Amino acid sequence: MNKVRAFWIVLALLFSSPVWAFQSRVVAIPSAAMRQSFDATVVLPDDYARGNHTRRYPVIYVLHGSGGDYTDWTSNSRIGRLADRYHVILVMPDGGHESWYIDSPFNRDSQYETYVGNEVVAWADAHLRTIATKQGRAITGLSMGGFGALRIALDRPETFGAAGSISGAVDPRACEDEPGIAHVFGDPARHASYWNRNAIIVRARDFERDHIDLTIDCGVSDDFVSSNRTLHQRLVELGVPHDYAERTGGHTWAYWSNAIRYQVLFFANAFRRNGGYQQSTRA
């Protein structure tokens, strides 16, 4: 191959390959409920900065799992590219190591449902060019974050139009041995009623009422696959529309970094269908 031909081939590859120019930044988001601020990762699509400065974008809130933090998704996956591909804002808040994203009645310093479901959303709408309607918001997460995303969406159907769970711990009653969980759920024997009524499986009927676009997936080798199958079957019995998938894999980043691609595609389709991509010239 001569040098001239090689040059043109390289040039063609450069212009045909996608250029990922999303912006990733760490911000501090205050919590009145917990009287402190927590860091979060925000990813903005490339055209957010260089395009029409009156354009507004739908937002996907992506939650980390137990023992993780706000850097997990960007450190372990290529999630940022999805912001460019689907023209969405991604917000990845810190949910504490073992908060389970609930407002714990047993630990007043752990009020992460209010923080993520109310305060983070309010911050995003105030500081970013978001589409501040339920049709322009989705929430998902992995493991503990999958539980948190579904619970937050169930409790705030006026806020989130779509929700997802990846390898979700949808039945905390199967996680009694998880370090730290009793600090927020209480002792599983003495406070069994609290554990029971907060299991997503028990609350499946609420999805029937709330009309949330719903997607759930889990790896076939994941310890949580049984509870996810039970939730799926319950939703089928209730006639609740939802997307459910099992794929090869376990409770690992190899699975999660692949699954998030399908979930963001699902949310993008929901935004298009429900008007969540509508642009605004409002300042």
From TrEMBL:
A GO term, aspect molecular function: acyltransferase activity, transferring groups other than amino-acyl groups
InterPro entries named in the record: AB_hydrolase_fold, Esterase-like, Mycobacterial_A85_antigen
Coiled coil residues, start to end: none
Keywords: Signal
UniProt signal peptide: 1-21
PANTHER family xrefs: DIACYLGLYCEROL ACYLTRANSFERASE_MYCOLYLTRANSFERASE AG85A, ENTEROCHELIN ESTERASE-RELATED
Protein name: Esterase family protein
Organism: Paraburkholderia dinghuensis
High-level lineage: Bacteria, Pseudomonadati, Pseudomonadota, Betaproteobacteria, Burkholderiales
